[in-house]
Amino acid sequence: MMNPSLAAMSLASSPIGGKPYEITKIEYDCHILTVDAESGTSRVKVVFENPMGFRVLDEGDLLEFWPTCSADNGWLYEITQGGWLPLEATRGGFLLADRNDVREFFMAGENDCVSVLAVEPPAIKTDEL
């Protein structure tokens, strides 16, 4: 099911060879969210400082993000319209809906995908295995 109101800006291109990243580890310590992913011989670490929320879902449960957020277009996106943030804002108890500085970021993995609500974009470190 495609979401025609979804708009996203790619922040990082797909690894060489076009194989999607596989999310291999997610670590959260109340101040830092770190997501590790691998694709062939390429490895990436994405670090969010002070995230306001995150979710991890199988890509099959996020079909509304495709084809906009497919591996052909990249693997890390800022969702600029549609997405998880406005969905959460429909709930009466969602206090972040009153803030205008919250941004949504989306990491498309081969199996799992991560959505993050944060004020600042993440730091990205890539290297070869």
Descriptive report:
The chain is mainly beta and 129 residues long. The chain has one domain. The protein contains 1 helix and 9 strands; from the N terminus they run E-E-E-E-E-E-H-E-E-E. The strands form 2 sheets. Strands 1-6-7-8-5 form a 5-stranded antiparallel β-sheet. The longest helix is centred in the middle third of the chain and has 5 residues, at 84-88. The protein is globular and about 45 Å long.
Key descriptive features of the protein:
4-stranded antiparallel β-sheet, 5-stranded antiparallel β-sheet, 129 residues, mainly beta, single chain, 1 helix
* Total domain modules: 1
Please give the radius of gyration in angstroms: 14 Å
**H-E order:** EEEEEEHEEE
Structural class: mainly beta
Beta-strand portion reads: over 45%
Q: Name the poorly predicted regions.
A: none
Oligomer: single chain
Secondary structure tally, helices? 1
Topology:
Elements: E1 7-12, E2 22-28, E3 32-39, E4 42-49, E5 53-58, E6 76-81, H1 84-88, E7 103-108, E8 112-118, E9 123-128
Antiparallel strand pairs: 1-6, 2-3, 3-4, 4-9, 5-8, 6-7, 7-8
Brief characterization of the structure:
This protein has 129 residues and is mainly beta.
